[in-house]
C-alpha cells in the first residue's frame, strides 16, 4: 500500500531504480524508456516504471540532500521491493584533473551530514560505499567510449551548498576526493541498512576552484550519458 511519500501500489516499481534529484529529470529519463507510466506524484516528486532493452526499470526523483534521498530510498527498498538504486546527479569538481561533463563513479562518500556521519555512534566512523558490482559495471561501461571521461573515486556529500572552507577542501583533495555533491552518502547508508544495493553516478557541472559551469542545455545532454551508464550497469552487474 502507499507510504507517506509514495502513492504507488505494490508491484508498481521495478527492482532497479534510477534516481535523479529533479522531478523534471525523472520525466526526461522516463521518456527514454519503453512503455513508461507514472506510478507516483506525491508532492510533485515523480516516479515512473517502464522497460529498457526489455528489462523493467523505474525512475524516481529524490529531491535535494541526505534527508530527502534517505526518505525515498528507505521507502522504495523497504516497502516496494526495490533491490538496486543508482543516483544520477551532478557534482562540483574538487580535483583539478576533472573536466566539465566528466562522470564520477562514487566509490565512497565522505560526509559532514549528521544524518549519516553519526549513524553508528560509539566512536565508529561509518564508511559510505556503493555496491562493488554496480560500481565496477558502470566504470567498465564508460571506458573506451568517446566523449567525457569516466573516473572512479570518492566524493564529499555535503549538507551545505554554499560553503567556503578552502582548507578542508584541499585536505580532502589531498586524500583523493574527486567532487562534492549532496546525496550519495545518504543513499549508501540506507542501502546498507536495508541490505540492498546502491551507486551514485555524478556528472561534473562546475568547479570548486574556478568559475566555469555547464549551460542548462549542456547539463541535460551530458546527463544522458550518466543515465546510459546506469542502465548498462543494471544490465551487466
Layout of helices and strands:
Layout: E1 16-19, H1 23-32, E2 34-40, E3 47-52, E4 55-60, H2 66-79, E5 84-93, E6 103-111, H3 114-117, H4 132-142, E7 150-157, H5 166-174, E8 179-181, H6 184-193, E9 197-207, H7 216-236
Parallel strand pairs: 1-4, 1-5, 5-9, 6-7, 7-8
Antiparallel strand pairs: 2-3, 3-4, 5-8, 6-9
Helix pairs in contact: 2-6, 4-7
Q: Count the strands? A: 9
For the CA atoms, what is the radius of gyration? 17 Å
The first-level CATH class is given as Alpha Beta
Strand numbers in spatial order across the main sheet? 5-8-7-6-9
Description:
The protein is an alpha/beta fold and 237 residues long. The chain has one domain: Nucleoside phosphorylase domain (Rossmann fold, 3-Layer(aba) Sandwich), CATH 3.40.50.1580. It is built from 7 helices and 9 strands. A 5-stranded mixed beta barrel has the order 5-8-7-6-9, surrounded by 4 helices. β7 (150-157), α5 and β8 form a beta-alpha-beta unit. The longest helix is centred in the C-terminal third of the chain and has 21 residues, at 216-236. The radius of gyration is 17 Å and the shape is globular. The model has no long low-confidence stretch (mean pLDDT 91).
Question: Quick summary of this structure?
Answer:
The protein has 237 residues and is of the alpha/beta class. Helices cover 33% and strands 27% of the residues. It has a single domain (16-236), classed as 3-Layer(aba) Sandwich (Rossmann fold), CATH 3.40.50.1580.
